[in-house]
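Ligand: iron/sulfur cluster. Inputs:
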Amino acid sequence: SLKITDECINCDVCEPECPNSAISPGDETYVIDPGKCTECIGHYDTPQCVEVCPVDCIIKDPDNAESGDQLWGKYEQLTGNS
Ligand code: SF4
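Predicted complex:
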């Protein structure tokens, strides 16, 4: 999963770009649901939130590190596609 750091300025640009609807406004900053984030695997070549974030505050979540195979598995589970 990806993660939004506390440098987020709550601009809301990333939320509509997420194909998994994994991004939402949190208490302090926008947050990513690690259960839904596939790092855009299955949808795009690069994570779309990272592409659009104006302050580059979206990183790989060290607490939810996943392999490409694991992210593909999550994509299949979420979408029913394989
Ligand atoms: Fe926060 Fe970046 Fe998303 Fe804007 S694009 S809400 S700064 S994480």
